[in-house]
Design brief:
The protein is mainly beta and about 300 residues long. Helices cover about 10% and strands about 40% of the residues. The protein is built from 3 helices and 18 strands. The strands form 2 sheets. Strands 1, 2, 3, 4, 5, 6, 7, 8 and 9 form a 9-stranded antiparallel β-sheet that branches. Strands 10, 11, 12, 13, 14, 15, 16, 17 and 18 form a 9-stranded antiparallel β-sheet that branches. A hairpin with a 2-residue loop joins strand 10 and strand 11. The N terminus is likely disordered.
Length: about 300
């Protein structure tokens, strides 16, 4: 589920709340593609991605936490103490400049106005809109999500280990929803490939350029240009997948490391920021398949 593709593109039709949808396992693993799939002979590294600016609204800081600012992308983890279940992982995106939220309750796309006041920790949602896709009635928590947002009056948020959590409360100060912040912006930029499957890579031109907002991957294996798509979703913290990876077909002295790079990209399911400008890409078995290091080189 790509967050950046949902926020204005769908027609919003009616008021909340609506019925419920199918129960689908949120933890189903992403399928792994074949190495070098969708190979493109004319893949190019575009020059317009040399400078990628991080959107301010998507990144939290400790100063934001102290100020009680509510913004960015949030996975809806629980509603009234119940773990959320949906056809997709439910989420909402706060857009402060528009004073609106966009998201999905697991079944239908939702849209609302929000206002909050850090001084007294109050928050309210109004002008609810939603798509009207027919949904089944068993197991899903979409109606409860709609009702919880309508009942929300107060909020708190906290830092727990590496993740920010936002809790919404009703008028009686009873928790009605807990959300986990999703921040993929640390992936933006140009990266040197330092290790693949734990093995050091001494290939000077092996670089990846990641554009989170466009959902695109570009790079150089040290010999060939590669392109691909980046998908981010709300199933787990920093959950990602690289898809439709294409590569030029220039003959290379050693093509083995190219195969290793493509395989590692296709196996990556989670990204974890590390110290000293490094990022680890991790597979479904919690193994680091790629170690990247930020570079100012283009």
């Amino acid at each position: 589920m790509k967050i950046t593709n949902i926020h204005i593109s769908l027609i919003l039709l009616a008021m909340l709340p609506f019925g419920a949808c199918n129960t689908v396992d949120r933890t189903a693993q992403k399928s792994k593609g074949s190495v070098g799939k969708d190979v493109q002979k004319e893949a190019v590294l575009p020059t317009d991605r040399e400078k990628i600016v991080k959107p301010v609204s998507a990144v939290y800081t400790s100063e934001d936490l102290a100020k009680g600012i509510v913004k960015g992308d949030w996975a809806i983890e629980t509603v009234n103490g119940i773990k959320t279940i949906g056809e997709i992982a439910p989420f909402i995106k706060f857009v402060p400049d528009q004073k609106r939220v966009y998201g999905n309750n697991g079944c239908n796309v939702i849209n609302a106005t929000y206002n909050y006041n850090p001084a007294d920790s109050t928050i309210d949602f109004s002008n609810f809109l939603s798509t009207m896709r027919a949904c089944d009635t068993e197991g899903i928590t979409d109606t409860e999500i709609n009702m919880a947002l309508a009942d929300a009056k107060y909020y708190t948020w906290r830092l727990n280990e590496d993740h920010y959590y936002l809790t919404l409360y009703n008028e009686d100060r009873t928790p009605v929803m807990e959300l986990m912040h999703q921040n993929f912006q640390f992936l933006n930029g140009t990266w040197l490939v330092k290790e693949i499957d734990g093995l050091p890579m001494n290939v000077p031109n092996m670089k990846l350029v990641i554009d989170v907002d466009e959902g695109k991957l570009h790079g150089n294996t040290g010999c060939n240009i590669i392109n691909g798509k980046l998908d981010t979703d709300m199933d787990a913290a920093n959950s990602i997948s690289f898809q439709s990876i294409g590569m030029t077909r220039k003959a290379c002295p050693d093509a083995n490391y190219e195969t290793q790079l493509v395989m590692a990209l296709e196996e990556a399911m989670r990204a974890k920021p590390l110290k000293e400008g490094r990022v680890a890409l991790i597979d479904s078995q919690e193994k680091v398949v790629l170690l990247l290091e930020r570079t100012s080189d283009k």
